[in-house]
Amino acid sequence: MELLRDAKISGNVLRLTPASESHSGAAWYREKQSIGGGFRTSFQFQLTETGGLGKGADGFAFVIQNSGARAIGGRGSAGGFAVASRENGSRPGIPWSFSVFFDTFKNREEGDPSDNYVAFRTSGRPQNMKWPQDRLAFTKKLHVHLKDRKIHTVQILFHPPMLAVYLDGSRKPDLEARVDLSIVVDHQGAAWVGFTASTGGGYENHDILNWSFDSEAVSSSASVVSSDITYLMWSCLPNRGLCTPEKAIVEPNARGFHIVLPANVDWSASVPNPAGKTVEITNAHGIICWDLQAGEAGCSGPSGISTSAGKDFVDPTSPAGALIHRNREGRTEFSVNHRAKADPKENEGLYEFDVELK
């Protein structure tokens, strides 16, 4: 493993930080891991010798990132992955990253719900790094106490686009949300994975006792998440788990058109086709969710998730969630196949693809 700053291995224990003030550490697999199509990771952690502000701080994170095996963020509330603070914004965080943060200190200025919660946090391109970092989802209450000095077990499961965190063998996820990992993977769907941790005025030993990572155990009917998606998160509507553009983008290219299609507007993209030529769609990728209450069953890639969606959908003969098109008034229009009577404004995600008229 690549160990940075205060991280050290002693015997079989990875200590990300010692129990003293103002430290940070990170540990990464030296080789990128495949995560785009889904993964399962399990580990045990133990937080000991808690002291200082809050009787222990600040927490640790499981991090996926595409900035390299030498990436590390700030101390204190930054968790070893984010920008340190508003006052110390020059301390870099890790761009192109997604973190599952086990937070053990309540920073009131960041709006933390407690000193014992888990959050999904994310950062995009370097010039857009900010403090505090975006919190995509978080727990309001945990059934375990993170810094009780006991050994705890975590399982994190990514079945695109749903990410779930289980603590100490819980049957139901302690935290589950739709997430867009397109920003943190390369063209092969791979990224660096590892851990970060930090202390500030409060401190604790952040120890990882064991860790397994498996990208082969999970598969999904949704498209493999890929950074081929060019409409990345800094151009997306706020407060959504999946990157959702405000409007469609249609750009001419050498063979026809390149289209970015948001999931939240019906038939929002179109191209001129007065002769009614055959439409060929290539390089289609992305993930959308048309039923936010159904979890994975309400999400899909461009091919959809069934052979025939049924009469309740925009196109009954195409799969639910599929990328569909129609010819109308001299144009070819494109849409996501969702329930016709549902309001598409709440849908999340995008499809990106090329179109050629033949």
How would you describe this structure to a colleague?
By secondary structure, this protein is mainly beta. It has two domains: 2-214, Jelly Rolls; 233-357, Jelly Rolls. The chain contains no helices and 23 strands. The protein has strands at 2-5, 8-10, 13-17, 24-28, 33-34, 39-52, 59-65, 97-103, 117-123, 134-138, 151-159, 162-167, 175-178, 190-198, 202-214, 249-252, 257-262, 269-272, 279-289, 299-300, 323-328, 331-336, 348-357. Strands 1, 4, 5, 7, 8, 9, 10 and 14 form an eight-stranded antiparallel β-sheet that branches. A seven-stranded antiparallel β-sheet has the order 2-3-15-6-11-12-13, with no helix packed on it. Strands 16-17-23-19-20 form a five-stranded antiparallel β-sheet, with no helix packed on it. Strand 2 and strand 3 (13-17) form a beta hairpin.
The level of helicity is under 10%
- How many domain units? 2
Task: Give the number of helices.
Answer: 0
Q: Strand percentage, roughly?
A: 35-45%
> In whole angstroms, how far apart are the ends?
52 Å
Unreliable residue stretches = 223-227
Named CATH architecture of the largest domain: Sandwich
Please write the string of helix (H) and strand (E) elements. Answer: EEEEEEEEEEEEEEEEEEEEEEE
Supply Rg.
22 Å
- The secondary-structure class comes to mainly beta
